[in-house]
Amino acid sequence: MVRAAGFEPAHLPRENGSDSQGDLQKPVPLSQDLSRVVTAWADLSLPLKAAILAIVNTATTKGGQ
User: Fold this and answer.
1) What is the model's pTM?
2) How far is CA 38 from CA 3, 4, 20, 32, 59, in A?
């Protein structure tokens, strides 16, 4: 079955049965370091934000090595 592309309803269960909207509403505990980054994010310069995102992207695409 092929789904239509474009705007999708705001609430669709995932194929594995989990509820994606409900999953997003579950609180996730943040480490102290991550909490500091989130708190400071609005005050960081664009180059610093880009550097942080580049590190995260590298770590997640290469298995954190």
Assistant:
1) 0.51
2) 36, 36, 23, 10, 18
